[in-house]
Amino acid sequence: MITLGSNLKNLRKAKNISQQQFATLMNTTQQRVSEWECGKVEPSLYNIIKILKVLGVEFEDLVEGIGE
User: Fold this and answer.
1) How far apart are CA 67 and CA 33, in angstroms?
2) Residue-level pLDDT at 67
3) Prediction pTM value
4) Phi-psi bin for 4: left (phi > 0), alpha (psi -120 to 50), beta?
């Protein structure tokens, strides 16, 4: 099943960025990034916008395939 978290993880890995590096760029913790990727916690709208900027992707890339 495709989720926002799985898409986030795939996009992050495609940019060759570790969870810790991503957390630093996002000004959050590695644990929070892990929670987003595992689907335990959904990122806020503010963080979604920041994710798009940090990874240099479009919103459609982040939500591709969700709910299909």
Assistant:
1) 22
2) 82
3) 0.94
4) alpha
What separation in angstroms does the CA of 38 have from each of 5, 33, 50?
Answer: 6, 9, 19
How much is the pLDDT for 68? 78
- Listed in sequence order, the DSSP H helices in the chain are 4-14, 19-26, 30-38, 45-55, 59-63
Determine contact, residues 2/64, Cβ cutoff 8 Å. Answer: yes
38-44 mean pLDDT: 97
| Tokens at 41, concatenated | 């916690």
For each of the domains in the chain, give its residue range(s) and CATH number, in order of start. 4-63 (1.10.260.40)
